[in-house]
Structures are given as structure tokens and as C-alpha cells.
Design goal:
CATH class of one domain: Alpha Beta
Structural class: alpha/beta
Number of strands: 19
Distance between the termini: 31 Å
Order of helices and strands: EHEEEHEEEEHEEEEHEHEHEEEHHEHEH
CATH topology of one domain: FAD/NAD(P)-binding domain
Number of helices: 10
Largest sheet: 8 strands, mixed
CATH architecture of one domain: 3-Layer(bba) Sandwich
Strand content: 25-35%
Length: 382
């Protein structure tokens, strides 16, 4: 059994940000346990060859398969972090006309485009650049990937975590406090809690939809943004599909790209092979943007509904939306102060957004420090 002061369950942005904050506060006795082989959680990307990859400094050719945008004007905590880390940003390209398919039978038409205000911003290198920069502030030995946490057992002064790796080997960790950096519903339905979570808290977590869980995205990478030469913004709207919303995903200094949100419900997508999905998405891009769209350098589909470390069956049946944040901690009992939720869905202002991962991690750290102070007070000699 390994002992640590703090265990962070989940190596997405919220878990990594929490770990970096602990390092900055001089707290080094912690571990990050991530179920996937790669960090980032719902932040994922492909490079210009179509391969999933980590962001490499100086290589802007990364295209987001998860979240893409942020809004500095009102997502101030995320904006401060981006500036602190020295990351480059740019505005979403929106100049030109939008192409619209108003029905399954009507031909596409061009309509005047519009500029969003405030502007949607992106990062050079995609959102993986943010994950890479945050990770750089964490000691590598504190992060362990390929560890699926199966159970948490709370005693008076500690919590025992049991995890399983890809080979079926079991590990046990004993921690004073646990930061839960996985979606509430995923945690409630895939982790065994002993004693059980308080019923009202479990109900809240189970009823909180996981952002991105019902989504699928298609990305097509090209040598040049040929649609811009036609006076098009790369934006499209369609009632025919399979994509219902399309945007320019080009990266300055690198390849051009288009991406779209697939509007086919998650339960229907389960029966469709990715090769078929890519083919019908390419055909749609040809309808909207012309024959040059038929031959991308590479393309990819990311169906988050197929990700066992993101989605559970309840997510597939409901609509994807940014909901209200549930309670991040039990108000009393054995879990109070021992288990704190810090994933994006626990963010009061930006539930489900990238900015929510930052806000919830920072709020969780404040709650953790308060709980640690309270614990130290109880244990101090009188």
C-alpha cells in the first residue's frame, strides 16, 4: 500500500491544474491517477497526419477533437492562466459567408456571415497546448497513467483507493484527502464508495450530465483553406447532416482544417462504422464547400459516447447541455472534507467548459486547504 497526503483521481485539465497549484503552494505529497494512457481527459487532438498526439512546443499543427474555444472577456481565471503560461491565442476565423442547408432536399445556399461578440478565441497548438503547459509544472513521478480507480473507502483519518491497470494488476493507495477530477456522473456510476455517498449527493451527481459525452466531432485537414478563396468563412449549418454545425479549424502557421459537430444521436451512431461516418461527412463538405473538400490530407471522427472514461449510458440518452453545478462535497459524515469534486461540471459559472475545469479546481483547492487546516486543528496536541 502506497501512502500520500492527497490523491487526485483524473488527469484531465482540472486534475492537472490542481496538481500544479499544489506544487506552487509547496505541497508535494500527492499523486495523480489517470485511467487513460494519455493526459488531458476530454481535451484531445490529432496532428496533421491524423495521429493522436501530445502538443510539442513549436508545432502548431494540432486540431481539437474536444473543446476548442474560450472567451477571455468573461472567463477571467482561464485567461489569467493562459497569459501566465505564455500561450499564444488567436480569434476564430469568421470572415466571409456561411453556407446553409435548410432541409434534406434543398440545395446549400450562401448567406451573409456574422462575427460573434465577444470573439471566440483559440490557442496556437489547440487546447492540448494548455494541457502540456500545465503538466510542465508537475513533477513527472507524481503522475501515473493507466490506473482506473475502482473503489474509495473512507475511514476516520484516511481514504483507501483501489485502482486497476490494463493488465488487471491492483494497486492500493492511502490518502488523507481525495480530489475527484472526473465527471460527477461517471464517478457515481463507476466508482464504489464505502460507506455509500449520502443519498442526496449521489442523486445530484447521477443527474448531472457529462459535457461532451453525447457529442461526436469530425475533423478534416487540408493543405490550404480553399474555402476562404471563395469568400467563405468555413462556417456551415445543416438540417440534412450528418454535421449540423461546421467551423474553420485552421491553425495559423500550419495546415488548414474544417470541423463539425455530428448531429446523429449517440445511440444511432453506435451502429455506424467510423469509415462510413468519415465518408458521409466528406460528402457533406463537398456539398457545402466544393470538390476540393473531397480529398483531405487526413480526417478523423471522435465519438465521445464511445469513451468509457467519459460517458455512461445515462449520458447517451439525454441531451448534451451545460447544466447547473452539483455540490462538490458531502456536508457532513465520513466523506466531508475527505472527498472534493473538482471536474468541470462542479464549476458554478462555467460548468462543462474548459474555464470550468480551472474554476472548479481552484475552488476545490480552497476547500481542500480548509479541510486540511481543520484536520490539523483536531490532531494538534492540547
Amino acid at each position: 500500500m502506497k501512502k500520500v497526503r492527497i490523491a487526485i483521481v483524473g488527469g484531465g485539465l482540472s486534475g492537472l491544474h490542481a496538481a500544479r497549484l499544489l506544487e506552487l503552494q509547496g505541497v508535494h505529497d500527492y499523486v495523480v491517477l489517470e485511467s487513460r494512457d494519455m493526459l488531458g481527459g476530454r481535451i484531445a487532438s490529432i496532428d496533421g497526419s491524423g495521429l493522436s498526439s501530445h502538443y510539442l512546443a513549436g508545432n502548431p499543427g494540432q486540431f481539437d477533437l474536444g473543446p476548442t474555444w474560450f472567451w477571455p472577456d468573461y472567463q477571467r481565471q482561464l485567461h489569467r492562466l493562459v497569459e501566465e503560461l505564455g500561450l499564444e491565442r488567436f480569434a476564430q476565423f469568421e470572415s466571409g459567408d456561411t453556407v446553409v442547408e435548410s432541409s434534406a432536399t434543398a440545395p446549400p445556399v450562401r448567406v451573409r456571415g456574422y462575427m460573434n461578440a465577444p470573439a471566440s478565441m483559440r490557442l496556437i497548438g489547440g487546447m492540448n497546448a494548455l494541457v502540456t503547459a500545465v503538466r510542465a509544472g508537475i513533477e513527472p513521478e507524481r503522475i501515473i497513467t493507466g490506473q482506473v480507480v475502482r473503489s474509495l473507502r473512507s475511514e476516520k483519518d484516511f481514504v483507501d483507493l483501489t485502482s486497476v491497470d490494463s493488465a488487471g494488476r491492483t494497486s492500493t493507495w492511502r490518502a488523507e484527502h481525495v480530489l475527484l477530477a472526473v465527471p460527477p456522473r461517471l464517478a457515481a456510476q463507476t466508482i464504489g464508495f464505502e460507506p455509500p455517498l449520502p443519498a442526496p449527493l449521489a442523486d445530484e451527481w447521477n443527474s448531472t450530465a457529462t459535457w461532451m459525452a453525447a457529442h461526436a466531432k469530425y475533423v478534416a485537414v487540408y493543405d490550404t483553406p480553399f474555402w476562404r478563396e471563395q469568400g467563405l468563412s468555413g462556417e456551415g449549418r445543416s438540417r440534412r447532416g450528418p454535421m449540423v454545425e461546421i467551423h474553420d479549424a485552421s491553425m495559423p502557421g500550419s495546415s488548414a482544417a474544417l470541423f463539425g459537430f455530428i448531429g446523429v444521436p449517440a445511440h444511432a451512431r453506435k451502429t455506424v462504422d467510423d469509415d462510413v461516418t468519415r465518408a458521409v461527412c466528406r460528402a457533406q463538405l463537398v456539398r457545402l464547400f466544393g470538390p476540393q473538400a473531397a480529398a483531405p490530407r487526413t480526417d478523423a471522427v471522435k465519438d465521445w459516447a464511445r469513451e468509457p472514461f467519459t460517458a455512461v449510458p445515462a449520458d447517451l440518452a439525454g441531451e448534451a447541455h451545460h447544466g447547473a453545478a452539483p455540490s462538490n462535497m458531502a456536508s457532513s459524515g465520513r466523506w466531508h472534507g475527505r472527498l472534493i469534486g473538482i471536474a468541470s461540471e462542479w464549476s458554478p459559472q462555467f460548468s462543462g467548459y474548459v474555464a470550468g475545469a480551472i474554476e472548479s479546481a481552484e475552488l476545490g483547492l480552497k476547500a481542500l486547504m480548509s479541510a486540511m487546516t481543520e484536520t490539523a486543528g483536531r490532531e494538534a496536541p492540547t
